[in-house]
Design goal:
With 126 residues, the chain is an all-alpha fold. Helices cover 90% and strands 0% of the residues. It contains six helices and no strands. The longest helix has 43 residues, at 2-44. It is elongated, with a radius of gyration of 18 Å.
């Protein structure tokens, strides 16, 4: 009987950690997407310097959580986000509105999908 309770407690802790991870990842990705949207708005207004600064802040926020994200996500997913930031920074450097808009949208969508992948849903369970 003791083994059964140890198993139940272990499974419960794993489940609770999964829920906590989903919540933390949701908050982190939402904040990053908000920051990228803000940078997009600044670029559309022609304020490229501010757009670069805001995007750099988003990248710093990503770096701040990178150790945690490398633990809970597939490395290839994290690497794609880093590559996305490089692509966005390059587009910002050349101030190419259409290239920047596309790169920023891809990056924001990829970041958003990271949260959706970890969310508890029937789609993710099956």
């Amino acid at each position: 009987m003791k083994r059964l309770w140890v198993s139940v407690v272990t499974l419960t802790l794993i489940f609770l950690f999964s829920l906590l991870n989903s919540w933390v990842l949701g908050r982190t990705t939402a904040k990053l997407c908000e920051t990228l949207e803000q940078a997009q708005s600044l670029a559309e207004q022609g304020d490229w310097d501010s757009a670069r600064a805001v995007t750099a802040q988003a990248e710093q926020d990503w770096d701040k959580y990178s150790n945690y994200l490398y633990i809970v996500l597939r490395h290839s997913e994290s690497d794609e986000v880093i590559g996305g930031f490089r692509e966005v920074q390059e587009s910002l450097k050349w101030e190419e509105t259409s290239d920047y808009t596309a790169a920023n949208a891809r990056l924001a969508e990829h970041i958003s999908l990271l949260s959706k992948m970890e969310r508890l849903s029937i789609k993710n369970l099956l």
